[in-house]
Amino acid sequence: MEDYFPSLPEEATAPGISFSFANIEQPDFDFDLLPSWIEAVIQQHKCTLGALSYIFCSDPYLHQLNVEYLDHDTLTDIITFPYAEPPMVSGDLYISLDRVVDNAQDRSLSFGQELRRVVIHGVLHLCVYGDKTPEEATRMRELEDEALTMFGER
User: Fold this and answer.
1) What angle do CA 143, 108, 123 make, to 5 degrees?
2) pLDDT of the residue at 13
3) Of 85, 82, 63, 84, nearest to 74 (Cα)?
4) Do residues 92 and 80 make contact, with C-beta atoms less than 8 angstroms apart?
5) 20, 104 Cβ separation under 8 angstroms
6) How far is residue 112's CA from residue 83's CA, in Å, rounded to a whole number?
7) What average pLDDT does the segment 103-111 reach?
8) Which pTM does this prediction carry?
9) Which of 8, 48, 58, 100 could pair with 12 in a Cys bridge, judged by C-beta atoms 3.0 to 4.6 Å apart?
10) Please, what are the domains in the chain?
11) Where do the DSSP E strands lie in 10-147?
12) In this predicted model, what pLDDT tens digit does every residue of 61-72 receive, in sequence order?
């Protein structure tokens, strides 16, 4: 991993969770409720919180990252770039708020419910859970549901 991120700034490796917004306005949502829940989910999966940076953006912004870094010419709700290997949970998580809005409508969920699902989906990836096969996708959904129950949903 060191070769992939040879010169991370010190603040990128300090434990903690940050939220920022790239080319999009901050939605009316209480982000202050998320860090303790995210950390509890990380601990539940026997992992340790490192530096997590959530960057919320638009579809075009995330699409460009998807094309440039993953060679995927598709829209997605989240892209996760790890800084470390489990059990350390550290990385950048880019989330398209456009996708969150659309997915919430498609699933008849509130914006907040869908946003929390996507937020924790990225964390679960960093805890080493995949979603490429049907079995992995089913397990990922179960883990998301467990995490949402911890938050008080479902």
Assistant:
1) 25
2) 55
3) 63
4) yes
5) no
6) 27
7) 97
8) 0.90
9) 8
10) 10-151 (3.40.390.30)
11) 16-21, 48-57, 78-82, 88-96
12) 999 999 999 999
